[in-house]
Amino acid sequence: MRHVKFRMRIKKGNTKPAKTSRMQKGTDKFSRGIMAPKTYKIDRKEKMSLWERAWLPEILCGMLITGRHFLKNLLRTQEMITIEYPEEKKQLPPGYRAEHRLMQREDGEVRCTACMLCSTICPARCIEIVAEDVGDNVIEKRPKIFNINELRCVVCNLCVEACPCDAIRMDTGRFENASFDRATAIYDKEKLLSNKADGASNLSAGLY
User: Fold this and answer.
1) Does the residue 130 lie in any domain?
2) At 88, is the secondary structure helix, strand, or coil?
3) How high is the pLDDT of residue 2?
4) Range of the domain at 42
């Protein structure tokens, strides 16, 4: 960007301290002239021309840079950073936090024991669990209702870390959950059990 130099001359103005009452005299620093305000006047000897004030050279320079990158990406497609989405999808890194899914035991039951740790630690309060009795000595409870509001979720992964049974994961690899209805973004237990990672099953060898 072109820099325009200015020649400035600073003149110090003489100002008189404001008048104060007898009670303030001797106590107010402004009345004694110690911290009296000072005024400065700036004289600009060189003024910008009409061409410079319109910023047309800078606009043309920016358009040239944009056009150069456009032609480079158009002719050299191998060096492009962007990808042709959605025909071409980028490989997600390991540990990417995607949609939730619930894990199952070998007998097909949900692995969750309704301990409420995930809903308690969730900072967004997007997990709703209603427990019911199972009648088993080992597993006393299971979730009757397990809902996750994906619109409210902040993808912090705290629910996965807090679960002692490895019952919930975020390794589905799906992040395209846009919809026209908010109700479809609330995943119930059946939806979470049907979510599966690519090439993986919902069976998990957890604590229970």
Assistant:
1) yes
2) coil
3) 47
4) 1-47
